[in-house]
Amino acid sequence: MKRFNLGAMFALLMGVISTPALAQDAQTLDEKVNAIFATATGPFVSLIFAPIPGTSFPWIVMWLVIAATIFTLYFGFVQFRFFKHSIELVKGDYADPNDAGEVSHFQALATALSGTVGLGNIAGVAVAVGIGGPGATFWMILAGLMGMASKFTECTLGVKYRNEYADGTVSGGPMYYISKGFAEKGLPGGKFLAALFAVFCILGALGGGNMFQANQAHAQISGIVGDFPGWITGLVFAAVVFLVIVGGMKSIARVTEKVVPFMGILYVAAAIVILAVNYQNIGWAFGQIFEGAFTGLGIAGGFVGALIQGFKRAAFSNEAGVGSAAIAHSAVRTKEPITEGFVSLLEPFIDTVVICTMTALVITISGQLISDPATGNYILDGSHIATVDGNTGVALTSAAFGSAVSWFPYVLAIAVVLFAFSTMISWSYYGLKSWTYLFGEGKKAELVFKLMFCVFVVIGAAANLGPVIDFSDAAIFAMAVVNIIGLYFLMGVVKNEMTSYVARLKSGEIRKFKK
Length: 515
Hints:
It is globular and about 65 Å long. Helix content is 75%, strand content 2%. It is mainly alpha-helical. Strand 3 and strand 4 form a beta hairpin.
């Protein structure tokens, strides 16, 4: 596979993208691509997101929830027992500067978070609450708490089986721990599953981790400043993204360690202002969440509908079990793989339990959802809850923020742009490591992928490729199918690492480093 002509492929891609005739007939091109992809990939997309027979619950979400439950029980509720120690590790209390790796615990966490904290926290939560009611928030939080154990498992393995190179760089992730871990245990099929994961990851990186982000960022910007060609947004994003990713993981980490805290604090602070303005309704909002979780408060499907929407949102948002975060966490400086497992379990907590919950609370407390004063149940508009101005998705979140302070939608627009940018640079790294796993390490192979990734940024901002995005989303969740199979076979390795580390931590062999 290393003899694959990467240069010829990229030249062909650039030639196709730059053909003037295609640029002059963009709408027709969109329609043609949509039709081709819908026909070719429809069965795959339908399979990945198919509901469990007799229900409306996607089997892939149940696949993730069951895995999270198993890991939570198998590791003895590790996400609660070692939460404090996780924070100490992120602070650098146990960091040895001489350990192999490229980035600190905090930088690895920030990079992985930048890939999960994104538009799903803003638009996706609004969709979940709009369909499942405030009660969806309860199930979303529960699924997020359990997903912490999945992240712990996969990120420990990511460091355990990573490749370390002479120049100080590393490569890791599911494709490495599945291939090497299966070989170590004498299990068949490891290389095939690893390659399959890498293919799905590349497709997901170019679509959901790239084109969708650019497309939605352009939509939000044009909604504020007025309509203008998407390729302009795409070129600006592509240039900035390239300047960051061309420097590799260390460059990405330097950016994410600044952008992620800023965008997180900006968004949460704005949400807290909304809650403060409506402080008298905070108790009522929590009441809606708990009551709606078990009664549905009149929504379609009752509490089951709330449960489905909550679990779906958590799975789509924090990606616990998908395996993507293990690629970023593999680059950490440590000689103890389990420490990065502890650090990574903070991700679903920050992404889902904190940020997604803030979005849901703002929507609920701002009174955007219309209810019947007589019964307290929500009024339905088709399959959705009726809203004050008929808004759904990101428009609903924007209206909720604007209900208290008129200019808050501008803050939201900044958050959307930052979330989209951070997601793109993280997924570029995920796609890159999958690309080099398939085609070999080297500057040429890396540059080809980075340039290709930036071309797709422009395509995503300029085009309207619905089925392409649907396919890439399906590819991301197909990663979870492969990854969790690997986790089930290798979770015993994680258990051994955990047992050894905890014993040494308690005995004092593992000590804090003086700063």
